[in-house]
Amino acid sequence: MKHVIEAVCTGTARPFNGAELSAITKRPREGAVQVLPEGLAPDEQADRSVHGGPEMALHLYPLDHHAWWHGKIGDHPALDEPGGFGSNLAVAGLLEDDVHIGDRFRLGTALIEVSQPRQPCWKIEHRFGHKGMVAAIIQSARCGWYFRVIETGEVTAGDSIERVATGPADWSVARVFRALVAGKATPAELAALAELAPLSPKLRAKAAAKRG
User: Which of 84, 90, 138, 186 has the smallest number of CB atoms closer than 10 Å to its CB?
Assistant: First the structure.
């Protein structure tokens, strides 16, 4: 099934919290945008130790969640922005329970693969000026996810994103998030996640460490 890409968003690192920089504010781009091994060109991440790189090349935070957040925190200008949560791709109809680690999607002319859930951080709460948002994400698994780039290409707003291969059916983004980020994994789940080939090496190592 194809879904329309309503916006392709990129950002630059800007002052965010005193001396702290962030590129969480992503703005829509016009025209074709290159999809390269480390993401859209150009797009920045302020702290490369926790964002960006080949395993986190593109971020998708479902547009469907914006309405849910309106109910949680009320009106906020960022909820009207397609890249309000730092998302590179504004897409409706794709959710964490329906998308699996290892799913591959044709994005414009590029081919991308789901690599891991997004772990929420304090910058979300600072951006929106609301405490408790990280806890709400952990409780609800409305986390979004990252892609790695398998084949480079170009994407333009209005193009489609189409799943062309499905990863391991047992491992939705939501299940992996609950297991590794919310900390609810069973020993059997940790053992399986440590061996889940499409999962990012960092999270496979985390599962292995927790397994002991």
Answer: 186
Other CB atoms within a 10 A radius of the CB of residue 8 amount to 29
| CATH code of 109's domain | 2.40.33.20
Decide the pairing of beta strands 39-41 and 33-36: antiparallel
- 47-69 tens-digit pLDDT: 545 556 899 999 999 999 999 99
Residue 122: CB atoms within 10 A of its CB come to: 12
pTM for the full predicted model: 0.92
Instruction: Of 42, 44, 176, give the one whose Cα is nearest residue 115.
Output: 176
Measured CA to CA, the distance from residue 15 to residue 110 in angstroms comes to 32
Are the C-beta atoms of 14 and 21 separated by less than 8 Å?
A: yes
Q: Which domain holds residue 147?
A: 2-169
Structure tokens at 187: 């020993």
